[in-house]
């Protein structure tokens, strides 16, 4: 049986700022409690959980225009999985981050979305505080990249 | 020096499984003796009939609507109020040994403290308490944890993996390959969640819990005040006690329970007179509780399967009784017995064949709602033995522990000290006890509110995916002890129905807001 679970949080920062963290897949462990490390190689990401399990993932979408990140856990434990993180501009200087989990078996959708809920809480906490490991790392990465051209090309993908 | 407190819980145990409550299958001389020396409650009621909400009520002294654990899989906030913290602050040494389940078990990210303690090799960690101070996690300075099988991250599982890996395969796999609760049958009859288990008795979690509790008690100074929550995972399914013990009760000799109508037509007629989710579960068209195997259809349950489940359950109850006896002997050997309060209960019941059903769910009848509860006050307190017929709730335990420790119950506790007899109950307690069920799982939402008062059990339904909110159940406990006849629509009961519903609506507390999210199935 499959299930689809959605978690969301509103963050009092512009969508671009939030996307600057969410769109960097190598920083996930800095805002997702229960993921202690992650490495990215092309469209492959490997996360290590707090129980020392390594889980391989495939990055499917990392779209700075839509501000959408999608990935798939490819561990044999899970028949199907699609994780989607949308950063939505609310037009008032704030943003809504929606983390959706579709999975078969359904149990995994609940478990992953539970972790995702904790991640969104942590993301909000860091932005509310204006400080935190994910923000620091994203800021450092942004400074190391070429500036974004007016037409949207270049810079952080 | 205060009174010491041994709080003994089992998991999913029916009222009628104890000899002192009229049970005839299990021999339970240890608990029976506690009952004879203390107070036996004939109508102890949980505030929820699943583990996490009910256990959270025991710890906080609050109803689920207040502590926020509205269904299994919703973690109790780390800084929730805790009676263990109150006792710790008063100088008590505090431990929980066995099954906690204030946080979800299925936790691949390792997010929850309960699951991380064994990995970290520490007895507890510091955490925020409800008043902003910091102390040991939930007030327990020692946590040594177990659940129903030797898989997962808790201390018992790690101990089994490290020391007895050859015995792991004897236990029933609680989940199947798709992470659903396993429907596979075993034993002699093919009953679900049954397996013959070759594990030696001394390695089984029941004896492990007693062993670890004794070890912790042995570590204390004679003058210490202590609160020990000894929490046995059994007799909750799976039913896989050590095979060496199966000779105690031959399932072939087990009578069918009174609540199991052997005639299929009779069963189905009884179910059809109740709100529709009863029959839908029986027919296998609706599952509203993760812990009920979704691939198992209750209508397929045979009389022999009911017999075998009841036999194995009874064996597990006997093993718990004997394990408790060892712990009480250890306490006696320390010279503490006169100053120790012992409370024995469980978190909720088990249908165990009633109406042709097993396990549990949104079904507020005696199988799930009438619990064993024994309070043997410390003999030094001079409380006379009694039997209490008035309804009490698990929400009353935390204030009772405070009273035993000589503490006033904090304002956030919603229950009141258990009565020592019916006159005490009538003099100072509310006459009603509430129970609630909320579940929203994979598109199925079910919501029940129940009041037990004046010999009646009345349940109203909130709108959900199965009910439109007009349904109800009304049973007279005196006239219908098996709750076979739903009198919700009986004109002769209109007045009492109206009175109970109004009283229930008046007593329902506001829901903690925002509602806490579901983080796992269990």
Task: Please name the fourth-level CATH homologous superfamily of chain B.
Answer: Alkaline Phosphatase, subunit A
The CATH architecture assignment of chain A turns out to be 2-Layer Sandwich
The first-level CATH class name of chain A: Alpha Beta
- The tally of strands of chain A reads 7
Radius of gyration of chain B: 21 Å
Residue stretches of chain B low in confidence (pLDDT < 50, at least 5 long) are none
User: Could you say how many structural domains of chain B there are in total?
Assistant: 1
CATH class of chain B: Alpha Beta
CATH topology of chain A: Alpha-D-Glucose-1,6-Bisphosphate, Chain A, domain 4
Question: What does the model show?
Answer:
The complex is a heterodimer of chains A (157) and B (522). Chain A has a seven-stranded antiparallel sheet. Chain A has a single domain (3-142), classed as Alpha-D-Glucose-1,6-Bisphosphate, Chain A, domain 4, CATH 3.30.530.20. Chain A is α+β, with helices and mostly antiparallel strands and 157 residues long. Chain A has helices at residues 15-22, 106-129, 133-144; strands at residues 3-11, 35-41, 44-49, 54-63, 68-73, 80-89, 95-104. With 522 residues, chain B is α/β, with parallel strands linked by helices. Chain B has helices at residues 29-37, 51-60, 64-67, 83-89, 113-120, 155-163, 205-218, 264-272, 277-282, 303-333, 366-369, 397-404, 422-428, 494-507, and strands at 4-10, 39-41, 44-45, 93-98, 126-128, 134-136, 142-145, 185-186, 191-192, 226-231, 340-346, 373-376, 386-388, 392-393, 432-441, 444-453, 456-461, 472-476. In chain B, strands 7-4-10-1-11-12-2-13 form an eight-stranded mixed sheet, sandwiched between helices. In chain B, strands 15-16-17-18 form a four-stranded antiparallel sheet, covered by helices on one side. In chain B, a hairpin with a 2-residue loop joins strand 16 (444-453) and strand 17. Chains A and B meet through helix 2 of A and helix 5 of B.
């Amino acid at each position: 049986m499959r299930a689809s679970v959605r978690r969301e949080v509103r963050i009092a920062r512009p969508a671009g700022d939030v996307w600057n963290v969410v769109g960097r897949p190598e920083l996930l462990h800095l805002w997702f409690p229960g993921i202690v490390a992650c490495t990215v190689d092309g469209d492959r990401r490997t996360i290590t959980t707090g129980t020392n399990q390594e889980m391989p993932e495939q990055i499917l979408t990392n779209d700075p225009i839509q501000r959408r990140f999608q990935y798939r856990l490819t561990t044999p434990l899970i028949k199907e999985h699609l994780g989607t993180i949308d950063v939505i501009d609310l037009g008032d200087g704030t943003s809504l981050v929606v983390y959706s989990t579709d999975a078969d078996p359904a149990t995994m959708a609940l478990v992953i979305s539970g972790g995702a809920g904790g991640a969104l809480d942590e993301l909000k906490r860091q932005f509310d505080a204006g400080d935190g490991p994910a923000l620091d790392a994203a800021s450092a990465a942004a400074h190391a990249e070429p500036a974004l051209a007016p037409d949207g090309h270049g810079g952080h993908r | 020096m205060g009174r010491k407190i041994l709080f003994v819980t089992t998991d999913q145990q029916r009222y009628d499984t104890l000899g002192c409550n009229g049970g005839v299958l299990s021999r339970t001389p240890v608990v029976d003796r506690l009952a004879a020396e203390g107070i036996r409650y004939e109508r102890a009621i949980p505030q929820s009939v699943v583990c996490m909400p009910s256990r959270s009520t025991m710890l906080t002294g609050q109803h689920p609507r207040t502590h926020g654990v509205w269904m299994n899989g919703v973690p109790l906030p780390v800084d929730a109020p805790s009676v263990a913290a109150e006792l710790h602050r008063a100088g008590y040494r505090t431990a929980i040994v066995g099954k906690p389940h204030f946080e979800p078990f299925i936790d691949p990210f390792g997010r929850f403290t309960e699951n991380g303690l064994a990995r970290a090799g520490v007895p507890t960690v510091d955490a925020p308490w409800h008043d902003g101070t910091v102390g040991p996690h939930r007030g327990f300075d020692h946590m040594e944890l177990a659940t129903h099988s030797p898989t997962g991250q808790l201390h018992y599982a790690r101990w089994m993996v490290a020391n007895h890996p050859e015995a792991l395969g004897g236990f029933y796999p609680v989940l199947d390959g798709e992470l659903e609760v396993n429907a596979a049958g075993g034993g002699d009859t093919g009953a679900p969640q049954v397996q013959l288990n070759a594990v030696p008795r001394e390695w089984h979690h029941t004896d492990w819990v007693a062993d670890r509790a004794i070890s912790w008690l042995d570590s204390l100074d004679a003058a210490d005040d202590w609160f020990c929550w000894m929490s046995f995972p059994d007799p909750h399914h799976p039913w896989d006690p050590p095979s060496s013990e199966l000779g105690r009760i031959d399932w072939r000799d087990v009578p069918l329970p009174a609540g199991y109508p052997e005639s299929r037509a009779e069963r189905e007629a009884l179910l059809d007179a109740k709100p529709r989710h009863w029959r839908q579960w029986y027919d296998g068209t609706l599952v509203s509780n993760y812990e009920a195997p979704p691939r198992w259809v209750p209508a397929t349950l045979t009389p022999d399967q009911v017999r075998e489940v009841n036999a194995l359950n009874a064996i597990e109850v006997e093993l718990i009784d004997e394990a408790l006896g060892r712990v009480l002997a250890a306490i006696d050997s320390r010279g503490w017995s006169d100053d120790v309060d012992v409370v024995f209960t469980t978190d909720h019941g088990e249908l165990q064949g009633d109406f042709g059903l097993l396990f549990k769910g949104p079904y507020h009848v005696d199988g799930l709602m009438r619990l064993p509860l024994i309070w043997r006050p410390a003999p030094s307190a001079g409380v006379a033995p009694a039997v209490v017929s008035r309804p009490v709730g698990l929400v009353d335990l935390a204030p009772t522990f405070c009273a035993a420790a000589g503490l006033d119950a904090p304002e956030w506790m919603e229950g009141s000290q258990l009565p020592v007899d019916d006159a005490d109950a009538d003099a100072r307690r509310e006459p009603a006890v509430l129970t609630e069920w909320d579940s929203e799982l994979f598109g199925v939402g079910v919501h029940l509110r129940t009041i037990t008062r004046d010999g009646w059990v009345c349940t109203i339904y909130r709108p959900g995916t199965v009910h439109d909110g007009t349904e109800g159940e009304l049973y007279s406990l005196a006239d219908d002890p098996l709750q076979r006849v739903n009198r919700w629509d009986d004109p002769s009961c209109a007045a009492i129905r109206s009175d109970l519903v109004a009283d229930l609506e008046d007593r329902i507390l506001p829901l903690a807001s925002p509602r806490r999210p579901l983080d796992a199935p269990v």
